[in-house]
């Protein structure tokens, strides 16, 4: 039987998650309607029915409201679950394609908005570089653990940064071309380019 303390902790955590979700949804509605530059902390707070200090407490960096999906744990778990003898590029391809595909099914409007903001709001794109770097370090450690190499192995850091950069560029291309293409197909193309280089144009 759950104790009173356990129950109260559970209630607090659910309340926190509800507040985080309300802030995220408010920021996304405002960004979709008015553009990112118009999305101030005060407007987010009013839309979410919380105080500005609450918004800042949950999201000290404003851009994280629309960027962070708190899925680094899931990405790392997916990568560690891949076969140990699988080629690292194929492991990362599988993990990222699965994550992107799931997100497109679960929250397609959020993914499209995030892509548009990445393409059109320099502050969002700059913050993305910071958050992607931490994701890359975690994935690099997971890959390095397969071989017994150091957690901060340079080659694995460069490798994972390149693959995540390919995902970023595929997403930007998607946004810059009206979100009309299949993002997972673009991601496969980007990873294939890392393997073989750009395809040569056909000769006339």
UniProtKB/TrEMBL annotation:
Native organism: Streptomyces filamentosus
Top-level division of the source organism's lineage: Bacteria
Location of the DNA-binding region in this protein: 40-59
GO MF term list: DNA-binding transcription factor activity; transcription cis-regulatory region binding
PANTHER family assigned: HTH-TYPE TRANSCRIPTIONAL REGULATOR BETI, HTH-TYPE TRANSCRIPTIONAL REGULATOR RUTR
Keywords: DNA-binding, Transcription, Transcription regulation
This protein's name: TetR family transcriptional regulator
Occurrences of domain HTH tetR-type (ranges): 17-77
């Amino acid at each position: 039987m759950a104790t009173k303390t356990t129950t109260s902790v559970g209630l607090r955590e659910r309340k926190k998650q509800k507040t985080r979700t309300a802030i995220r949804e408010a920021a996304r509605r405002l960004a979709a309607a008015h553009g990112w530059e118009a999305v101030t902390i005060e407007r987010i707070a009013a839309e979410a029915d919380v105080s500005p200090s609450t918004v800042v407490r949950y999201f000290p960096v404003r851009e994280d409201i629309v960027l962070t999906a708190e899925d680094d744990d899931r990405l790392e778990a997916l990568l560690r679950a891949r076969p140990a003898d699988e080629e690292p590029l194929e492991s990362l391809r599988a993990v990222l394609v699965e994550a992107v595909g799931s997100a497109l099914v679960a929250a397609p409007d959020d993914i499209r908005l995030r892509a548009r903001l990445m393409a059109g709001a320099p502050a969002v794109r700059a913050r993305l570089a910071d958050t992607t770097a931490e994701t890359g370090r975690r994935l690099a450690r997971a890959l390095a653990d397969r071989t017994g190499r150091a957690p901060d192995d340079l080659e694995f850091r460069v490798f994972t940064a390149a693959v995540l950069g390919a995902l970023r560029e595929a997403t930007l291309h998607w946004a810059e071309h009206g979100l009309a293409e299949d993002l997972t197909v673009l991601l496969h193309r980007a990873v294939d380019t890392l393997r073989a280089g750009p395809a040569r144009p056909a000769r006339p």
